[in-house]
């Protein structure tokens, strides 16, 4: 009789436990989105402080008036900027040698996939999710659309 009661209790508790894991992954996604937004805004402000020309008009192939590709320097490393926002790709062309936005962040336990869909997108996935490809935040900047802010889209159907 005791074993039957324990079995019923376990069967009732298991779905609630599974929902707690999903809730934890959803909270992790929301926190990750907040980190990306905050970090991008901080890098944008730093770029404008370091270079008055680091603005919306300059992308990875458009030199600033000083002849450099837009970038910020943090902890001795250069990170590329795209129209005043962190670049989601490692540098090439004028920005060769500059690191991507993801390399500026210490995101232990997060899988980063660059160049998803286009070279101006980067996915940050939760690897322990049942379907990591659908448990992610996608950071996207705009290629030829200066003046637009990046997007930080959450996909949570696989969490």
What does this structure look like?
This protein has 159 residues and is α+β, with helices and mostly antiparallel strands. The protein is 33% helix and 19% strand. The chain has helices at 2-50, 101-104; strands at 71-74, 77-82, 85-86, 111-114, 121-125, 136-140, 151-155. A four-stranded antiparallel beta sheet has the order 4-5-6-7, covered by helices on one side. Strands 1-2-3 form a three-stranded antiparallel beta sheet. Strand 4 and strand 5 form a beta hairpin. The protein is elongated, with a radius of gyration of 20 Å.
Characteristic key phrases:
159 residues, 3-stranded antiparallel beta sheet, 33% helix, elongated
- The best one-word shape is elongated
Let me know the largest β-sheet. Answer: 4 strands, antiparallel
Average pLDDT confidence is 79
The oligomeric state of the chains shown is single chain
**SS field, number of helical segments:** 2
Report the portion of residues in β strands: 15-25%
Order of helices and strands: HEEEHEEEE
Instruction: Write out the strand line-up for the largest beta sheet, numbering strands in chain order.
Output: 4-5-6-7
Find the structural class using helix and strand composition: alpha+beta
Spans of 5+ residues with little confidence (pLDDT < 50)?
none
The gyration radius over C-alpha positions equals 20 Å
What's the N-to-C terminus distance?
Answer: 37 Å
User: Helicity level, as a percent range?
Assistant: 25-40%
Total strands: 7
């Amino acid at each position: 009789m005791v074993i039957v009661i324990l079995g019923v209790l376990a069967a009732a508790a298991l779905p609630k436990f599974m929902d707690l894991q999903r809730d934890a992954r959803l909270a992790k996604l929301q926190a990750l989105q907040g980190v990306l937004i905050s970090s991008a805004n901080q890098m944008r402000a730093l770029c404008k402080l370091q270079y008055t020309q680091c603005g919306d008009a300059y992308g990875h192939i458009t030199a600033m008036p000083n002849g450099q590709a837009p970038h910020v320097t943090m902890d001795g490393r250069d990170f590329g900027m795209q129209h005043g926002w962190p670049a989601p790709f490692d540098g090439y062309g004028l920005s060769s040698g500059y690191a991507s936005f993801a390399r500026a962040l210490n995101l232990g336990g997060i899988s980063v996939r660059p160049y998803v869909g286009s070279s101006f997108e980067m996915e940050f996935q939760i690897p322990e999710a049942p379907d990591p490809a659908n448990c992610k935040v996608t950071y996207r900047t705009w290629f030829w659309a200066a003046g637009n802010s990046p997007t930080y889209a959450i996909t949570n159907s696989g969490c």
